[in-house]
Amino acid sequence: MIKLSVFAGSLVLALMPLLAYAAEPCLPCHQEKSPGAVAQWQGSAHAKAGVGCEKCHGTDHEKMVKGEAKVGMKVCAPCHKKAYEEHRASRHGMGLHSGWGCTRKLPDRKPGECRFCHQEGDEAPRSDVQCARFLKQSPEMGEIGCNYCHSVEDACDSCHSKHMTDLKIVRDPNSCAKCHMGPDHPQWEMWQTSLHGTLNASAGRGTGPDCQSCHMPKGSHNVSIGLTMNSGGVPYPAAKAEPARAEMVNICSGCHAPSFARKELERNDQVRSQSLAILKEAEQVIWDLNDRGLLDPMPADRPPHPLSGPRLVTDSQMLYEDTSHIERLFFKMKKYDYARTVKGAYHQNPAYTHWYGNAELKMDLVDIKSEASRLKERKKGAAPAGVSEQQGAEDELKALKNKFDRGALSEDEYAKEKGKVLEKMR
Amino acid sequence: MIKLSVFAGSLVLALMPLLAYAAEPCLPCHQEKSPGAVAQWQGSAHAKAGVGCEKCHGTDHEKMVKGEAKVGMKVCAPCHKKAYEEHRASRHGMGLHSGWGCTRKLPDRKPGECRFCHQEGDEAPRSDVQCARFLKQSPEMGEIGCNYCHSVEDACDSCHSKHMTDLKIVRDPNSCAKCHMGPDHPQWEMWQTSLHGTLNASAGRGTGPDCQSCHMPKGSHNVSIGLTMNSGGVPYPAAKAEPARAEMVNICSGCHAPSFARKELERNDQVRSQSLAILKEAEQVIWDLNDRGLLDPMPADRPPHPLSGPRLVTDSQMLYEDTSHIERLFFKMKKYDYARTVKGAYHQNPAYTHWYGNAELKMDLVDIKSEASRLKERKKGAAPAGVSEQQGAEDELKALKNKFDRGALSEDEYAKEKGKVLEKMR
Amino acid sequence: MIKLSVFAGSLVLALMPLLAYAAEPCLPCHQEKSPGAVAQWQGSAHAKAGVGCEKCHGTDHEKMVKGEAKVGMKVCAPCHKKAYEEHRASRHGMGLHSGWGCTRKLPDRKPGECRFCHQEGDEAPRSDVQCARFLKQSPEMGEIGCNYCHSVEDACDSCHSKHMTDLKIVRDPNSCAKCHMGPDHPQWEMWQTSLHGTLNASAGRGTGPDCQSCHMPKGSHNVSIGLTMNSGGVPYPAAKAEPARAEMVNICSGCHAPSFARKELERNDQVRSQSLAILKEAEQVIWDLNDRGLLDPMPADRPPHPLSGPRLVTDSQMLYEDTSHIERLFFKMKKYDYARTVKGAYHQNPAYTHWYGNAELKMDLVDIKSEASRLKERKKGAAPAGVSEQQGAEDELKALKNKFDRGALSEDEYAKEKGKVLEKMR
User: What is the superkingdom listed in this entry's lineage (chains A, B, C) (predicted)?
Assistant: First the structure.
């Protein structure tokens, strides 16, 4: 009797997919219209578990056709709770906030986009994080150039693909490659040619770890475990960095002695702070030119920054367009060179640390200083002979006032510097 | 009886390769001199079908030794008619015309090269397409740097390798990679890290399509099916673009809903026309400097352009050498940045579209405007004080005349602009 | 009786690893502390042959913990004599000498580093080769950015990994990739997309050769066989080049007709000498500016070169930091563009030869000439009107004297050039 009921139970389990198919009203049509998607679903764990079309896509066909019924993360969350929560706690869960920007100011927004910032029916955005670089793009460039990757915040299919559930796809570092590459963060490229990546290619994952080995330990969806800087490369304060470092050392110690791992990581911390200092030096040169009114063009003479208006911006909201030559050199230093040096070091890649990173950082500093010298000389050249000494002192005083106004000089320092100039004029 | 003759027929078929070998007079020598080539041929479908050395190489051994008996496409055509015709109808069939350039003007041409442009014995070339950039190269650089790839026009072994016929070689996207890569058209790189390419790596060709899947559908040798711009990135006119687009949507619809495919492609068309506008803006800056005589050096003061002489060239015949700094910036925009943005979009690669493409396009525009400002100020700086106002107006009038002469101003516009300058002078 | 002793002998052989394990006093502790290393050793040929921890690491545990007991090449040499000698005869055996530089002048050197230049207990270094670029780095950047690769001189585990002996790792071109890549010598990248590399991917190593096929023929550890230029790209003199060329043609002839191989290589020699000429042209422009005192900043006005002090350096000790814009352009030409052109040609990669190489070389020459023109005009602009003609002649005379002093003009040439200037002044 028991045997029989077990058999009957097994039969039901075995037939479940078929039952699911039979009950799936979308199939007849979609086997015609999107055979690829149907076939992928049929081979998926979802089909086997009886999770059909409506479960994820809902029933409002009109909305689907209009592209307003995207299968966001909240659709997956009820069944995949742990992954959902880990994801949201990680930097991936911030994807849109760092890249999407506020859509309010752009005309022609597509329906459905609003939900990224607004609760349905709520005019006030849930978050006011905006991205100046996104705001400068056309809707089309914003879509393929920004949101293709940054929508990872709300889209499991960023990594998992749409209708397949095969874990070999998402456990392959290639699934990370399609976003984590390029001039601004070539993690894919630097891993591939690191000792880890090359051993991965020659001797397999057990010997050469991949992205997932270190950044998704034990399958965690919190990809930010063990990181000690924010996504802009700014180091965490010690109180936040230390426990994160301990986590990473723990991950490394799957293969390495913890003392070795800690020493390596600390060496890379040094590379990071040295590189930040180079960046800072360049940034000062630009602010000094701004104080002296020598940027060409000056912020007031170009289209206003989408968030800060007609002011110099060199922080994480810095633009690479509608700017001056020297600022665009600094943009490259900040977004490309610094990232390659630091990420190159943490990924143990000599060529990225030194040549794609450090050498570019220092060569761009050379170019920035040279351009600054040119801009200063231009000013001098433009002044009629005779008046130039008097003019020079006045310019100096104005630059000092600007420096004081933006808080780069204390009241004491300002007084002292002003004194020096006045002394010389006498 | 029937059975016996079938058997006899099979026997002949089975022995044919052996017979071919036996009849192959080149083997005894070449098994010694080029064992690799012999072994590859022996493993090929050609050997099995009894296609021996002479069939492709002819019998004039002296010519072969001198390198004058290359196995061009016409040798393969009689047996591979469909492939030959598809190839000739495609952009591959134009390979030499776009890259080879006319060899008449170069000294020391090698015998055999003539046939690319001339029918044997005919002095007039079949085509007058020339490539200025090719004409500037040394014969050696022209050979490895240009013709290695552009000889695809006339050489099946560009893709098929020389003595092997194994289709796995030519169906591998690697066979495309060796030409379709690099700063000017990194299709290989952008595919590899696109969703298509990464799925190809993790889940195979059925899930992630490769070059051949989309550009050689059903094994067609017409690689230009479905393209809507020429090889320089200039969009086709609507009448030519629309049927091509329909072809591409049809290819996409092997996996995607046609409406989705069309929408994606149309988004990328927008990216293309926006990028063209940025390019155009930069080009105008350069022509304006040319009108004002401010390029450094001016076209008249440098080695003449091989096709256009001492004139500014910014079209597809633009050079990257013997030019000015600002023009070489524009060359990068046109050949590298624009190509990466547009091809990046059509290949669904966010990093190529945005960072390797769009961001570079906009940063180079910043640099071009900055250099233009520098060149204009230099001129002003050079003029002795007092005469500068009068001089400025005269320069302006001359620039307007140049603009009018090259057709960038209508007669009416010219008169109006001239009027404004004269008004100011009064 | 004989049979029995053979059996007994086999038994001993078979048990040896077990005996080795039993005798391995480090295991109990290290199975806990570094399980990865232990497992790799257990699977290695070393374990099978009874080569245990102490054999390589010694017995001074304190030293090991401090990182002062690195397993250098001399530890491996007694057993791997042939490989050791071949390695030392090759460019790999010079790794540290070309990249490490002298550590004497740097503070805070770590114990153990000294041995790279000094015999133990000997104050005089074995070699005085130093690297100016290394001397400019922080100890941390020097470690990951320089020595990670250059320590190949003394470290078999650069390629062989630490505890594994699996030859599939070291026969995989990936083991070369981790150093032979990047902007300055992208051999890995150019091989991958060459005909050789793409055939390797599609048809295997037998058809498409890899790094080891050509540069480590028959497993030789002399990786410099057949090279005809030094590591800076300077061609060997004929007497040294010719036998090396014969070696390489011999390697090629495993697949190609020797006459074909030689012709190809000679074509690439031409590309090399043409590219050297372009480099030389740019170098002259910079030395001329230096003679005229027009570099910005001049060598005397910047931190002194670590080896040459306040003097212009454009040879292999050239820096990319603390220099002028125009010199840093030349650094790129020399280290990146030239290397890509020449190595691209020898690796049969059209895109590296032409676009990443030759085109960059020529575009950087354009930029260098343009910057030189700007620097000269700046000087003129700065001179007060009226005195400029007299001043110009004096500058010219001073530049000629500098040129003569550095040996770029013979006494006769100097006299003649001086005469011309004086003639004009009259």
Answer: Bacteria
